[in-house]
Amino acid sequence: MAKTKTIENLFVLLAIFSDILPILLFAIFFKSIKSKRIIWVLIAFTVFDFITNLSLYYFIPPNYHNYIYPVFTLFESLFFAGFFYCTISKAYIRKLILLITLIFSICLIGYYFYLFFVIRNIPVLDSIPIGIESILIFIFSFLYFYEQLNNTSNFFIYSQASFWGVLGILIYLSGSFFIYIFANQISIQELNKYWIITNISSIVKNIFFTVAIYIQANESIKKPPKNYNFYPSN
């Protein structure tokens, strides 16, 4: 039992401090990527994520965590929506993302106000907003991949920083989707047992964000070899 607890704590710490990876790489390649908006959005979220998780783990007492989660959910959804807004080029899709995010944010603030100040029923975790946020981000991801598939000039999607950013976000949200959804329906003990999946998802997300920054910093990776023939003749 003690060994299991040690492993769980290890993954918690890895999930928190793996945020430093993309931040460190951003600092190293700052000059070459300082004009890239999508990287700034990823880093802004990563810094926010790191400060929040560090505060929750070391400084904020557990009985106050329920008040922090809603703030985190709101800003997380804004950061991710901002990332897709900067990544997708089609104007009508960008406007759609803007509209959906605005409506969701207003509804979210209204929901939290009702929950905290009207009925005063504070859940263990804000499962409903997290579930809706995840579904919206999944839709934005679909729109991103749809645009990429219709982009005939893009032969190597995996050589784009945006691809790794989207992949990191998808794994991060999908890895913890059902855990968050059922968080208020199971005991704290059961929740802690499966929380390691969330931590692993966070670690993978940070690795993919690091890959995104590295690719963005090395423009040559995006380009095919010289004289490369996409359609070789027999």
TrEMBL record:
<feature type="transmembrane region" description="Helical">
    <location>
        <begin position="12"/>
        <end position="30"/>
    </location>
</feature>
<feature type="transmembrane region" description="Helical">
    <location>
        <begin position="127"/>
        <end position="146"/>
    </location>
</feature>
<feature type="transmembrane region" description="Helical">
    <location>
        <begin position="155"/>
        <end position="182"/>
    </location>
</feature>
<feature type="transmembrane region" description="Helical">
    <location>
        <begin position="96"/>
        <end position="115"/>
    </location>
</feature>
<keyword id="KW-1133">Transmembrane helix</keyword>
<keyword id="KW-0812">Transmembrane</keyword>
<feature type="transmembrane region" description="Helical">
    <location>
        <begin position="37"/>
        <end position="60"/>
    </location>
</feature>
<feature type="transmembrane region" description="Helical">
    <location>
        <begin position="66"/>
        <end position="84"/>
    </location>
</feature>
<keyword id="KW-0472">Membrane</keyword>
<protein>
    <recommendedName>
        <fullName>YhhN-like protein</fullName>
    </recommendedName>
</protein>
<feature type="transmembrane region" description="Helical">
    <location>
        <begin position="194"/>
        <end position="215"/>
    </location>
</feature>
